[in-house]
Amino acid sequence: RKFIRVLPLPSENWSDLVEEWCCHPNPFARSTLHPQHDDCFLGDTFFLLNSGNESHVPESPENTRVICKRCKTMLGETVSPDTIKYYITEVIIQPSEGCFSPTPRSQFVQSMVAQCLLELSSAKSTFRFTIKGNDGKTYILIWLLNSDTLLVESLESSSSLSVLTLFGDTFMPSSGQVGSWDAVKVLYQPCIKCRNKELADEWENDMGVHPLKFPSETCLELLLILGLSTASLPPSLRCMKSFQVRNSCY
């Protein structure tokens, strides 16, 4: 499927400030930003497409989950009868002229999340994020610590690579026996099973924290990736002020 227009969406709560921008009644009150057939609208963690003839659109209006018929993975959800929201961690969009090369799942997830953190921190000067599932629960608290980390390591004695291969991932080295990758360094706290509930509630009410929504299964997958990366670090470098440390390649 090809798109004629690929346009960025305004921030999620843009309509809350319309009254501050306009000296007359809200001109957008009855209008919605829904893509036409050849449009692709980009959000922070998702993109919107016109449903058109999509075969995996749920038939029941009560069921908004969009499921891949082949692997049964949740790809997104319907937001209106003719609009589908796909999450960036579940579907790949690329130029039609380029050749497609499969990317290992965990490498793709951490790359997309890292790029999302970079873009939002640059555009909105925010460095704290909550990772939420489509079920409304908070799974992870992430604090972006460093956005220009370069990982350089010997492939023969790479502990982090041995961890990543648990997912079937192999990062290609830049040359010879030494691999180098751009990465972001983050601090994180898991919030599953009521862990860090007080801190999660505090971040929930903090205007400086930006929420990011993904499928719940992907949130758990991301938490596992974070945990395995932390375990690959020396014990003295795994924690900082009660937060766990993680380097994420992109």
Automatic annotation (TrEMBL):
Q: Which residues cross the membrane?
A: none
Keywords, sorted A to Z: Ligase
List this protein's GO terms for biological process: proteasome-mediated ubiquitin-dependent protein catabolic process; protein autoubiquitination; protein monoubiquitination; protein polyubiquitination
Which InterPro entries does the UniProt entry name for this protein?
Answer: UBQ-conj_enz_E2-bd_prot
* Catalyzed chemical reaction(s): S-ubiquitinyl-[E2 ubiquitin-conjugating enzyme]-L-cysteine + [acceptor protein]-L-lysine = [E2 ubiquitin-conjugating enzyme]-L-cysteine + N(6)-ubiquitinyl-[acceptor protein]-L-lysine
Task: Return the EC number.
Answer: 2.3.2.26
| Molecular function in Gene Ontology | cyclin binding; ligase activity; ubiquitin conjugating enzyme binding; ubiquitin protein ligase activity
Question: Origin, by domain of life?
Answer: Eukaryota
What Gene Ontology cellular-component terms does the record carry? Answer: cytosol; nucleus; ubiquitin ligase complex
Keyword Ligase in record:
yes
Q: What class of enzyme is it?
A: transferase
User: Subunit structure, briefly?
Assistant: Interacts with UBE2C/UbcH10 (E2 ubiquitin-conjugating enzyme). In vitro, interacts with cyclin-B.
Described by its record, this protein's role is as follows: E3 ubiquitin-protein ligase which accepts ubiquitin from specific E2 ubiquitin-conjugating enzymes, and transfers it to substrates, generally promoting their degradation by the proteasome. Independently of its E3 ubiquitin-protein ligase activity, acts as an inhibitor of CPSF3 endonuclease activity by blocking CPSF3 active site.
Q: What protein does this entry describe?
A: E3 ubiquitin-protein ligase E3D
Which organism encodes this protein? Rhegmatorhina hoffmannsi (white-breasted antbird)
Identify the coding gene: Ube3d
